[in-house]
């Protein structure tokens, strides 16, 4: 079966039935497809699960049934994966566009009358006319249909002699739902999303404003995508959509209400700025991340996930502080840092040093891509290195790549130990990218403002400006989703390790209040 799943294949319905596998390409988000402790959920998952029953209807024996396999990909890779034969269908809330129709075929739409609308942060400059977007930054899903509409607006702005918008394509890990969380937290001021997604999230996120009357594209249609020249597969899907899945049919109506009118499954983000209240936090993150060769944004995201930066937090398993590290781990020979319970700096230092020890001893090897060195180190921090290595062995036996986390060992982890470690790694990587992008753009904005001031007042252009604190995180990133309800046994160091970092001298301890 693994060979049938992983090999490239394009075929019509008869060939799909012979293979007994229907590979569904999806993007992982809180609308279309996500995992809970009760199994997969999402409107695309439930629609495709219903299609599986439709496809196998009648007195068909089990050995002749066609089974669905869901394969997750970043949104901007879905169509390419389909055309390469890595999946049989894309079910991920795709809007039908002329550009996409040149590459793939679409089924009949199952959601109609979708508008692409503006969503803003409540503290942003009010927007009532397109001209007021001139010079503004607007962030959208990478390779989404929104980009074409925004580019057309920029052409119109240029024709009026106005400055273009800065169109920011988010990291491929970030979906529309993630971007809405970033706007809600004030990281960005404007985005474009589909109206049905914007309206459900506006019920949960109180810091966003949905501009229903600011429409970039109206009457959009959402459908599934398949490869061209597959008439029987398309006819089967269209028959299912017409009789069951489209709006107006019972199943379509039930699922639409479940995912686009019910906010119960949306995790509410935090609305306070923890890092702003504790300025020395970022100083410690940068200091020890640099010493142990980590991206400090990654460390900040990990600390946010672990404790929301709360040094007083104690878990039920006895983990302490910002990095949620146990005294036994901090006192072990590969960390050796005392007083982690009350000293925030020592706690952060110990957590980063332990993460470095996991990286250097287990995963800093040629078989791993640099990003997977980090992914596996994070997984080991959460679940323990011994458990992660066991998952790698299972992945290898099942024909997956034991040295790749996403879509490989991650899949095994979900099946073997539940969702916590899977969500842990994903959340940290998403948050890291969000923090990095927002902070870097803020830095660029401040530099541009300073250049503009220098142009207005050349006499002061050589004078030192105010201390640049552009790397401060004056916001709280979007909150995580953890459906497992369980806490993994973590950072116990379940194998004896003597990492390369263990004999390095620690960086000198500097004053607790960093220079501002």
Automatic annotation (TrEMBL):
Q: Might you report a single GO cellular component term?
A: cell outer membrane
Alphabetically sorted, this entry's keywords are: Cell outer membrane, Membrane, Signal
Signal peptide, first to last residue? none
Name this protein carries in UniProt: Transporter substrate-binding domain-containing protein
**Acidic residues compositional bias, start-end:** 477-486
Topology in the lipid bilayer: Peripheral membrane protein
Q: Where in the cell is it found?
A: Cell outer membrane
**Family under the similarity heading:** Belongs to the bacterial solute-binding protein 3 family.
Cited CDD domains: MLTF-like (cd13403), PBP2_YfhD_N (cd01009)
Superkingdom assignment = Bacteria
Residue ranges annotated as compositionally biased, kind Polar residues, are: 452-464
Which residue ranges does the record annotate as region Disordered? 452-516
């Amino acid at each position: 079966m693994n060979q049938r799943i992983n090999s490239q294949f394009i075929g019509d319905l008869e060939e799909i039935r012979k293979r007994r596998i229907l590979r569904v390409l999806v993007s992982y988000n809180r609308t279309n497809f996500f995992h809970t402790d009760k199994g997969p959920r999402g409107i695309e998952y439930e629609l495709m699960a219903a299609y599986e029953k439709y496809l196998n209807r009648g007195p068909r024996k089990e050995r002749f049934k066609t089974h669905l396999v869901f394969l997750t990909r970043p949104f901007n890779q879905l169509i390419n994966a389909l055309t390469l034969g890595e999946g049989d269908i894309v079910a991920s809330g795709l809007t039908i566009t002329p550009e996409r129709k040149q590459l793939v075929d679409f089924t009949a739409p199952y959601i109609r009358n979708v508008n692409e609308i503006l969503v803003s942060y409540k503290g942003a400059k009010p927007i009532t006319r397109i001209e007021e977007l001139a010079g503004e930054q607007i962030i959208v899903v990478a390779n989404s249909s929104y980009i074409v509409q925004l580019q057309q607006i920029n052409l119109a702005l240029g024709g009026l002699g106005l400055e273009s918008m800065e169109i920011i394509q988010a990291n491929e890990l970030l979906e529309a739902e993630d971007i809405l969380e970033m706007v809600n937290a004030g990281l960005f001021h404007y985005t474009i999303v589909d109206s049905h997604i914007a309206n459900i999230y506006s019920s949960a996120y109180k810091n966003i404003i949905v501009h229903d009357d600011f429409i970039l594209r109206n009457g959009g249609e959402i459908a599934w995508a398949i490869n061209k020249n597959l008439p029987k597969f398309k006819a089967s899907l269209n028959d299912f959509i017409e009789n069951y899945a489209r709006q107006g049919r019972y199943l379509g109506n039930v699922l639409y209400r479940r995912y686009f009118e019910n906010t119960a499954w949306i995790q509410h983000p935090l609305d306070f700025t923890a890092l702003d209240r504790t300025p020395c936090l970022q100083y410690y993150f940068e200091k020890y991340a640099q010493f142990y060769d980590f991206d400090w944004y990654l460390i900040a995201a990990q600390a946010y996930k672990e404790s929301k930066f709360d040094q007083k937090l104690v878990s039920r398993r006895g983990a302490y502080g910002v990095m949620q590290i146990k005294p036994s781990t901090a006192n072990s020979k590969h960390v050796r840092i005392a007083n982690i319970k009350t000293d925030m700096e020592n706690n952060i230092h110990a957590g980063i040093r332990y993460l470095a020890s996991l990286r250097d001893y287990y995963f800093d090897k040629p078989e791993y891509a640099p990003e997977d060195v980090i992914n596996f180190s994070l997984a080991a921090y959460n679940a323990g290195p011994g458990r992660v290595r066991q998952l790698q062995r299972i992945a290898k036996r099942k024909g997956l790549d034991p040295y790749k986390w996403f879509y490989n060992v991650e899949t095994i982890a979900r099946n073997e130990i539940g969702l916590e470690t899977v969500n842990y790694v994903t959340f940290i990587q998403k948050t890291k990218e969000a923090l990095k992008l927002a902070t870097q753009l803020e830095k660029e904005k401040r530099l541009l403002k300073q250049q503009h001031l220098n142009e207005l007042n050349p006499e002061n252009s050589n004078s030192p400006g105010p201390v640049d604190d552009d790397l401060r995180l004056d916001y709280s990133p979007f909150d995580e989703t953890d459906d497992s309800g369980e806490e993994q046994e973590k950072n116990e160091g379940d194998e004896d390790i003597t990492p390369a970092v263990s004999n390095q001298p620690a960086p000198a301890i500097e004053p607790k209040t960093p220079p501002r």
